[in-house]
From TrEMBL:
The lineage of its organism: Bacteria, Bacillati, Actinomycetota, Actinomycetes, Micrococcales. Pfam families: DUF2273 (PF10031). Keywords: Membrane, Transmembrane, Transmembrane helix. InterPro entries: DUF2273. The chain crosses the membrane at residues 30-53. This is DUF2273 domain-containing protein.
Amino acid sequence: MTTAVWGAVAGAVLAFAALAFGFWGMVLVAALAAVGALVGAVLSGSVDLRAAVDAARGRRVG
């Protein structure tokens, strides 16, 4: 699937969450989706969590 299709799906899910659960329910769905995406990226190896934490702390990698 293309990025545009994923964006449309995410928008539809958030719109449904807003209708069903209100604003804070939608915010919770968005936050949990972001956490799930991060966990998936770490498990697939596309994000190096250790390097990201080191960069956030101001340490140089290498």
